[in-house]
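Risk register update: the risk of archive-format incompatibility is retired. Evidence:
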Amino acid sequence: MYGYSPRRRQRTLTAFLFLAASALAVANWHILNIKIDRSHASPETGSRETSPIAFDPAEQLVATSLDAYPETTARPLFSATRRPPPTVAPEPAPELVPETPDNLRLVGIMENGSGGIQALIRTGEAPGRWLAPGDRISDWSLARIEDDQVILRNGRHTFTLTLFPNRDAKE
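Archived output:
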């Protein structure tokens, strides 16, 4: 009793849909008939020109030959053998060789009673220091002590100090 009958609801819904469709049709007709300025802006003045567009994409495609696109002709788009261009590995940076410790001199080698061995190394005019394998002097670390020489290491580089450097030169 308090609502609309189903028939009346159906007529109201039909009328609403008809009005909505009519409004959309009028809006669509209006949008299609709007005048749109398609001229391009002049780069010098920034204003719009009234002449039609001078650029024709079809003419541009015809005027350009395939020789202008060597990558496209070398690797056609729809070919089964198409591969990306080969990558060129960058050149490795030149390895920095540490400065040779010319001012170092091996003065003596000593074996102590507990089985350890040490080398006396002098830096320039300064008094020498007793070093064991693993100790550092300048940028170098003492890698190994042998009977008459020591081997210093700086990264992958090695340097050998001999106990009697002049003896090797005379022989």
